[in-house]
Amino acid sequence: MSQALIVHDVAEGVWAIEGPAEQRNAQNLGNNATFGLIETEQGAVLVDAGGSRKGAEALHAVIATLTDHPVTHVINTGGQDHRWIANAYWQDLGATVIASQDAVRDQSARQSMQMTVLSTLLGDALEGTDGATADITFATDYTLSTGGREIELHHPAGAHTPGDTAVWLPQERVVFTGDIVYVGRILGVMDVSNSAAWLDAFAAVEALDPLVLVPGHGPATTLAVAQADTRDYLANLRDKIGAHIDAGGDIIGSVMVDQSAFSYLDQFDALAGRNAQAVFEAMEWE
């Protein structure tokens, strides 16, 4: 049985569906992220597919309590597994999947690795999962007009993953950020992340001036909270690593740069040092 997915009412016919803030496991079915649902007159649009086929089934069960409409479109906001790995479940039901070209390239490049890791973490709960990529791709911007809604997709720059995309509802001023924003837990800088471009992607979200922001991890929130938990964390880390490099510091010492102002974030102890080393490796060559 999947651990509970928490539903947040965001606007009329718009919901955030928040998974647990923990590592992927057989109980959460890989759904350790925040998803979105947008109801239209002709069907529902799902923001991110789920972390496994069984994870998609768990999402579908929640969706059925919110709307009678079928899911007609799925938007992948990036290349992390829970954003896309269950696409085939929705395609089998007739949904059209949309993603940035950079996201699809990243998904294809990392699919084998992601499936291997998920197999270890989920075990039998991964059964039936067969990653499939998007039906419609775009370079930087795409507008989905369906059922009386205009849904804008913006991929301004790579962030946590190369294809990270924000989903913007201009009428409601609601943005689903995918992994451009983490709230309440520390973000993760991976080898495919770009901490400099990540700040550019965040600036593009800021420029939208949203009333409600739905992060890739955490509950629906405000831009101010997102600025504190994501933008300010990244800016501080890059500033401290830059000073460390200028002082002749090495990657071993990078883990000691001061990130204590953000120790309130969940998983800080597990990820802060790793993030420092990843940013050091990138900034050495900037």
From TrEMBL:
Q: Which GO terms describe its biological process?
A: antibiotic catabolic process
What top-level branch of life does the organism fall under? Bacteria
The record's listing under CDD domains reads: metallo-hydrolase-like_MBL-fold (cd16282)
Matching SUPFAM superfamilies, A to Z?
Metallo-hydrolase/oxidoreductase
Q: Which UniProt keywords apply?
A: Hydrolase
Q: A Gene Ontology MF term for this entry?
A: hydrolase activity
| InterPro entries per record | Metallo-B-lactamas, NDM-1-like, RibonucZ/Hydroxyglut_hydro
PANTHER family according to UniProt: ACYL-COENZYME A THIOESTERASE MBLAC2 (PTHR42951:SF4), METALLO-BETA-LACTAMASE DOMAIN-CONTAINING (PTHR42951)
What does the similarity note say? Belongs to the metallo-beta-lactamase superfamily. Class-B beta-lactamase family.
Q: What is this protein called?
A: Zn-dependent hydrolase
Give the source species. Celeribacter marinus
